[in-house]
Amino acid sequence: MDRKLAEAAALLSRSSRAYAFTGAGVSTESGIPDFRSPGTGLWSNPKLLSLATGDALQREPARFYNVFLPQWLAYRQAVPNPAHKAIAGLEAIGRLSGVVTQNIDGLHRKAGSQVVWEVHGHLRHLVCSSCQRPASFAVAEEALQKGALPPRCRCGGVVRPDVVLFGEAMAPDFDRALTVLRQGCELMLIVGSSLAVYPAASLVRFADALIIVNRDPTPYDDQAVVLRGSAGEIVPELLKSVVGSR
Ligand SMILES: [Zn+2]
Questions:
Q1: d(CA 110, ligand 1 centre) in Å
Q2: Which of 119, 139, 179, 192 lies in the 20 to 30 Å Cα band around 101?
Q3: Residues 132 and 64 in one domain
C-alpha cells in the first residue's frame, strides 16, 4: 500500500489538470448508505427501484414522498467525513481542479470544495415540476407532518427534488463536466465509485491516468493505480503525502 500510495501521490503532484470523480463510497463514512452494496442495497429491492423513477413520482407522488422524503431529510443532516475534506484540501493546494460527483448529498460543497459538478442533482432545495419555481425542504417537511404529501407549489404543481431519478435525463452539471473534461484531463482521482453507473462513469474515459480509491474492484482497475480500502483513511493519507512531497 505504501508504494501504491507514493505512486498515486506522485501522479497528483505532477498532473496539472486533475479532477476527482466520486460515488456513494465517499459518503458511506458520513452515514449515507451505498444503495448498490450487497445486503444494504436499497436498489436491490425491485419495489423501491421501480418507485425511484420520474414516472412513479407523477403516478404516485404521495407514496414516492413517503418512502424517500425521510431519507433525504437525513442526508441533509449528514456532515462531510475526512475523505470529502481531503478532496477539498487537494483542491485548495491546487492539485485538483474540481470534483464530479454522482452523489446528491451535497457533502463536497459542505466540505469546502469550490468547483463541484453534481451530475445526479442535489438536495439543497426542491423545484416545482410544473412552473420550475424553487421551493424549500421546509415545504415538504410541513406536508409530511400534516400528512399532506406530496408537497405542492403555489401553482398547484407537485414539488419535486432537484435530483435525477431513474429514467430521467442527467442534471445540467453533467454536460458542464463533460465540456471541461473534454478540454483535457491529465488525471482522475476516483473515490468510492464502482464505475458501473452510466452515463456518469463514461466521463472516466477522458482521463489520461487514473487513481482508484474503492473497497471493491472496478472495470478500470487494470488501467489505474488502485488503493483498496476506506476512503476516509486513504484520501487524507494521499493529501498528507502530496503536501509532504512539496
Ligand atoms: Zn409551480
A1: 28
A2: 139
A3: yes
55: containing domain: 33-77+124-163
Residue 180 shares a structural domain with residue 231:
yes
DSSP calls for the chain: -HHHHHHHHHHHHH-SSEEEEE-GGGTGGGT---TTSTTT-GGGSHHHHHHSBHHHHHH-HHHHHHHHHHHHHHHHH----HHHHHHHHHHHTTS-S-EEE---S-HHHHHT-SSEEETTEEEEEEEETTT--EE-HHHHHHHHHTT-PSPB-TTSPBEEEEE--BTSPPPHHHHHHHHHHHT-BSEEEEES--S-STTGGGGGGGBSSEEEEESS--TTGGGEEEEES-HHHHHHHHHHHHHHT-
Same domain for 147 and 242 = no
Residue 120 catalytic?
Answer: yes
- The two beta strands, 210-214 and 99-101, are unpaired
Q: Does 5 lie in the same domain as 104?
A: yes
Tell me which of 84, 108, 120, 122 is the catalytic residue: 120
What are the tens digits of pLDDT across the range 100-127?
A: 999 999 999 999 999 999 999 999 999 9
1-32 confidence digits (pLDDT tens): 689 999 999 999 999 999 999 999 999 999 99
Kindly give the distance from the C-alpha atom of residue 158 to the centroid of ligand 1, in angstroms, as a whole number: 7
Would the pTM count as exceeding 0.85?
yes
Question: What is the Å distance from ligand 1's center to 135 Cα?
Answer: 9
CA of 81 to the centre of ligand 1 (A): 36
